[in-house]
Write a structure and sequence with these properties.
The chain has 14 helices and no strands. The chain is mostly helical. α1 crosses α3 and α12 runs antiparallel to α13. The radius of gyration is 22 Å and the shape is globular.
């Protein structure tokens, strides 16, 4: 029987292979991730052998998101966001863990978590839909710009109920009620409200005053966007 050193803490072979088998089945749905899965297994197996490969892969796939998002690249970079996205697309059960990272004590972790959450929404908006009520209740009071602009993006990607859309509109109008709002937040809030105007949820006459406010913004990009949407409203009338 194979003997292991005292410092080796590998999973039993059967458990490790069972875990990988389940992951392979799950990865069959998000096809882009399938190649990554087999690529990693080949690397691990080539370097370590099948038993250790299974154990190392298990560790890789169960690493805490808060630890992954805390490191990697410069402080203001996205770090290992793509690694986190890959894991959630492979295992939807870990979406809750990612959501929790938006409340982490470190602002860079919260920013990276929000970025990952929104990018997952682009692929699976139906996964994010059950979180909308919690987002409105738990994150709408956040003053962190990187949280705000990602929520604004999510609101235009998920199919909202009438009640949820009214809550989103109130929040977006609040963001645009001052020219002091972060420029990326302003841009995304305007984009989402413009979509709501197109859908008939927001009246053009209610959108126009917010655009006039954003014409006083310090960012030329925001001013240009506000003017573009004002011109579009003029065409409607």
């Amino acid at each position: 029987m194979e003997r292991r050193g005292e410092n080796e803490e590998f999973l039993p072979l059967d458990a490790s292979l069972l875990y990988i088998g389940r992951r392979i089945i799950f990865f069959a749905s998000p096809i882009p991730c399938l190649g990554t899965l087999f690529g990693r297994l080949r690397i691990y197996a080539g370097k370590l052998g099948i038993r250790k490969a299974a154990d190392w892969y298990y560790r890789d796939m169960t690493e805490k998101f808060s630890d992954m998002l805390l490191v990697g690249g410069k402080a203001n970079s996205l770090g290992r966001v793509n690694d986190v996205i890959e894991r959630v697309l492979a295992d939807q059960d870990r979406l809750e863990e990612l959501y929790g990272c938006m409340f982490y004590g470190d602002a860079w972790v919260r920013m990276r978590a929000a970025d990952a959450f929104e990018k997952i929404c682009r692929v699976h908006p139906e996964w994010i839909a059950p979180y909308i009520d919690r987002i409105e209740k738990e994150l709408s009071t956040s003053t962190q710009a990187s949280i705000q602009w990602h929520l604004a993006q999510i609101y235009r990607q998920v199919e909202l109920t009438d009640v949820q859309k009214r809550a989103a509109v109130r929040w977006l109008r609040h963001l645009l009620s001052t020219p002091e709002v972060d420029w990326i937040v302003a841009a995304n809030a305007m984009d989402t409200l413009r979509q709501f105007v197109d859908e008939g949820t927001v009246l053009p006459k209610d959108f126009r005053p917010l655009l006039m406010i954003q014409r006083e913004h310090r960012s030329n990009a925001v001013i240009k966007r506000a003017n573009k949407y004002l011109a579009a409203l003029d065409v409607l009338h």
